[in-house]
Amino acid sequence: NPTVALNTNGLTLNNHLFVDTDAVFQTSGLQLTIGGNFTLNENGTLTTGSNTVTLNGSNSILSGDFSSSPFNNLTLSSNANITLSEDSEIRINGLLTISSSASLNEDSGGNIIDLRGNVVNNGTHLSPSNSSTTGLQFNGSSQQTLTGTGVYGNVIVNNSTGLAIQNNITINRRLVLNSGGISLTSHQLTLGVDAE
């Protein structure tokens, strides 16, 4: 299979990255920044190691099955506006960061965002409608944390050790507690007008 590997330095792209069918892109633990669309075609493979992938496009699309090629850390930089394409699914083993004025948008049919680590959100996560299956899924094996003053769409907790909220937050769609609970301590959870 055709393979591209970063060896010494990280890579910053001002435009798009396309990993074709059966191709392999290895970051070798080095940082990757993408200013345009990021497409992982069918049977393409992304190997990240311990790196952070940063998306900073102002109107960019994240497309592909990133559940079998998971991100380590994924960061949306300030003012990034990232939309997941139809049927795209992502898994993040480390930290998801949505910076101030950034937006992570699901497709009109919703997307699964499989979180095994923590979230720092000072921007916006948008779900198109209330759902018990699509949205931010907290699927970790130890307690996960949600930090920042951002806004959320669907939030689904599938973690028996629970989710710790470390700031006042707003959920505008559905909150689902399949396994484990939410620890608010002294923080406030606000449900928007369409929430349930």
Task: Tell me about this structure.
This protein has strands at residues 3-5, 11-13, 17-19, 24-26, 32-34, 38-40, 45-47, 52-55, 60-71, 73-76, 81-84, 89-92, 96-98, 103-105, 112-115, 119-121, 124-126, 135-138, 144-147, 151-152, 155-158, 163-165, 169-171, 175-179, 182-183, 189-191. The chain has 196 residues and is mainly β. The radius of gyration is 16 Å and the shape is globular. It is built from no helices and 26 strands. 0% of the residues lie in helices and 48% in strands. It starts with a strand and ends in a 5-residue tail after the last strand.
Category by helix and strand content: mainly beta
Number of strands: 26
**Major beta sheet summary:** 11 strands, parallel
Q: What percent strand?
A: over 45%
**What Rg do the Cα atoms give?**
16 Å
The oligomeric state of the chains shown is: single chain
> How would the global form be characterised?
globular
Secondary-structure element series: EEEEEEEEEEEEEEEEEEEEEEEEEE
Give me some keywords for this one:
48% strand, 26 strands, 196 residues, mainly beta, 11-stranded parallel sheet, 9-stranded parallel sheet
Task: Provide a short characterization of the protein structure.
It is built from no helices and 26 strands.
Show the helix and strand layout.
Layout (H helix, E strand, L loop, with lengths): L2 E3 L5 E3 L3 E3 L4 E3 L5 E3 L3 E3 L4 E3 L4 E4 L4 E12 L1 E4 L4 E4 L4 E4 L3 E3 L4 E3 L6 E4 L3 E3 L2 E3 L8 E4 L5 E4 L3 E2 L2 E4 L4 E3 L3 E3 L3 E5 L2 E2 L5 E3 L5
Parallel strand pairs: 1-4, 2-5, 3-6, 4-7, 5-8, 6-9, 8-10, 9-11, 9-12, 10-13, 11-14, 12-15, 13-16, 14-17, 15-18, 16-19, 18-21, 19-22, 20-23, 21-24, 22-25, 23-26
